[in-house]
Amino acid sequence: MEDKILLAHGSGGKLAHDLVERFVKSLANPLLDKLDDSAVFDISGRLAFTTDSYVVSPIFFPGGDIGKLAVCGTVNDLATSGAKPLYLSLSFIIEEGLSLKELEKVVGSVQRAVREAGIKIVTGDTKVVTRGSADKLFINTAGLGVIPEGVNVSGSNARPGDKVILNGAIGDHGIAVISQRQGLSFATKLKSDCAPLGGLVAEMVKASPNINALRDPTRGGLATSLNELAKQSKVSIRIEEKAIPVREEVLAACEMLGFDPLYVANEGKMVAIVPPRDADKVLTAMRKNKYGKDAAIIGEVMAENPGRVVMKTVLGSHRIVDMLVGDLLPRIC
Amino acid sequence: MKYITEFRSSKLGDGLVARIQQRSKKPARFMEFCGGHTVTIFRYGIRQLLPPTIDMVSGPGCPICVTANDDLDKAVALSQIPGVIIATFGDMLKVPGSYSSLEKAKAEGAEVQTVYSATDALDIAQANPDKSVVFLGIGFETTAPTIAASILQAEERGLKNYYVLSLHKVCPPVIKALLDSGEVELQGLVCPGHVSAVIGSKPWEFIAQEYGIPCVISGFEPLDILQCVEMLVEQVEKGESRVEIAYKRGVRPEGNKIALKLMGRVFEPSPARWRGMGEIAGSGLKIREEYKSFDAETKFDIKTAPAVEHKGCICGEILRGVKTPADCKLFAKACTPEKPVGPCMVSAEGSCSAYYLYGGGRGG
User: Fold this and answer.
1) CATH code, domain with A59
2) What is the ipTM of this complex?
3) Which of A156, A165, B119, B134 could pair with A272 as two cysteines, CB 3.0-4.6 Å apart?
4) Are B45 and A184 an interchain contact pair (Cβ–Cβ within 8 Å)?
5) Do A317 and B1 touch (CB under 8 A)?
6) Beta carbons of A216 and A77 less than 8 angstroms apart
7) Is residue A184 one of the residues assigned to a domain?
8) Mind listing the pLDDT tens digit for each residue in A240-252?
9) pLDDT attached to residue A101
10) Same domain, A138 and A168
11) Residue of B nearest to A247 (CA)
């Protein structure tokens, strides 16, 4: 019979100890290996600190799983403040009965994502709850990063005249996850764009320390992120529908499901608000990175009608792009 | 799949807009019947591209929006019966009835599951033999055939715990009622694309012939709408009134015979209540006697308090094309997509929701 997670795995006893050891072995680094209750380290400079919980359903989806997502999501949140991500905590809440194989697969993904992102897991926790109290597996991660000297990135820094740059096609993650949902599954080769963007952002910041704002459009999609930026900075943002990269498969799935790609979730996208004189430099740097090959200038920041996002449609008319209202589909990340 | 970007080409769009601008001389008001068309028109800012001679008004073609409060109340009442699982399209959850919504009922413990097709509801019934699954049959001729098929499948699979609350509506009679009311004067009708894919073009003939109104069946991409408007303008300028199909890749004159047969086998015409328009003869579909054992209205004793309308909500007038969301005092104030007062703000195809989302809460 397949090995399953039992309540005893979370009891603090022998089974729990073994489970933690297995995790530690695969995620090994000097800070974690000590197995003390807290990770202890020196760090200097301006810090960025963030946390997020991951409850995606299903836990495995094309292009990733909840483990990869839990690392990338938090790394990307750090990157949006221009920080170099350094350390992560990793906490599992496991539903009794989850197969050990699945859990190991998730830990393997965490390991690969951590390696790619060049960060360390320095502390963690595991809890097991009775069947029905969670859905297979929930993960929480928190992250610490250091902001390079001279970088001052904030959602409230967008200025009229700034260019809006996006690193690639939108909507892949949301559609990839939905395509696996029970009762909704449809065949697509589409993969989630889930990726750690710390490296991309480091190169962008190197190309121009003057980047004013960064945002990773996850739940709520590009539309919601742009609205947040416009409101925070008290400016308006004008985007060009034609300039926004969207894959044909995403367009097709959106038509079928009645979604607008502007509102579909991403997990590997970054929007940068850059002063016009630096826009080309940042764009060139982005295109050299594997997560920025399709980067494009999609619009610009304006002074009038603060808080608004307006889109020039493919037909040349204009329309307002509001925030996402309600839920497209729950538990996408 | 290559059916999208081609129909959003700016080059072809520019050409169509130029032809419409050039050709349109007589003032004309066109109604887009279908909520899906309203959304495309707003999403692509099509009204801005049309000459001042053309006025577009939105019609009653949003199945959620036209569902009367009495019927919404029935759905909520059914969800309160112990052992009942409500299976429904997601759009229905938030729609406020007289006193509550399915979303609220769900939060209070009712079993309400969102499905993407009636077949999923059958699976829920099969997986829960000790419960009764009631599927909310909402929609026009587009969804009715699949729901008819689900009843036939339930019979085949021997399911004794699957029921349908048939609130289906058919489109041509409501257009007739609208035109007979004399409240709106139209010079053209953008006929629904997917309804026509099922019923074909014949059922619209009476509008062209008896009322002298040009009719063009349209698809849902921006170029579809522009092409349809161009064809309507052409008829108006020539003083003609015919039914034409602009949506040739989706609609055949005879419709979908298999779908029509399925629908006719399980359902028969009945009167139906429409929000803002009251009861319209022959505009509904009820389950035929042979399939009564699948009818939720036969199986359950559904008790509801008298329906009440929301004070100040003008959804009814908006659905009749008499008023626009901008005329409503509640619009974007007391009534928003987060806290909808009327169904036209809830449904993705509702006029109020389209005005709100694409007009920035301030209308057109």
Assistant:
1) 3.30.1330.10
2) 0.81
3) A165
4) no
5) no
6) yes
7) yes
8) 999 999 999 999 8
9) 93
10) no
11) B5
Dihedral angle of Cα A81, A82, A85, A89, to the nearest 10 degrees:
0
Question: B232-244, pLDDT tens digit by residue?
Answer: 999 999 999 999 9
Q: Judging by beta carbons within 10 Å of its beta carbon (0-12, 13-18, 19+), is residue A82 exposed, middle or buried?
A: buried
- CB contacts, 8 Å: B8 with chain A: 314-315
Domain, as residue range, for A78: 7-147
**A174 and A129 share a domain?**
no
Number of domains in chain A: 2
Nearest residue in chain A measured CA to CA from B39? A258
Of the candidates A147, A182, A217, which is a domain's last residue? A147
- Residue A157 maps to a domain: no
pTM as predicted: 0.87
Note the pLDDT tens digit of each residue in B159-198.
Answer: 999 999 999 999 999 999 999 999 999 999 999 999 999 9
Same domain, A175 and A311: yes
Cross-chain residue pair B359–A315, CB shorter than 8 Å:
no
Closest to B78 in 3D by CA, of B122, B136, B140: B136
Q: Is the dihedral of CA B3, B5, B7, B12 positive or negative?
A: negative
* Same domain, residue pair A173 and A285: yes
Measured distance CA(A32)–CA(A63) in Å, rounded: 28
| Residues A180, A123 share a domain | no
How far does B35 lie from chain A, in Å, by closest CA?
Answer: 12
Instruction: Mark whether A62 and A193 lie in a shared domain.
Output: no
DSSP A313: -
Q: Name the strand (E) or helix (H) holding B70.
A: helix B69-79
Residue of B nearest to A188 (CA): B1
Q: How many residues does chain B have?
A: 364
- Ramachandran region, residue A132 (left: φ > 0; alpha: ψ -120 to 50; beta: rest): left
Same-domain status, A296 and A180: yes
Residue B160 structure tokens: 């004794």
Residue B1 has pLDDT above 70, yes or no: no
Six-digit token string for B147: 């729901």
A333 domain-assigned: no
Domains of chain B and CATH, by start = 5-64+171-245 (3.40.50.11750), 67-170+284-299 (3.40.50.11740), 315-359 (no CATH)
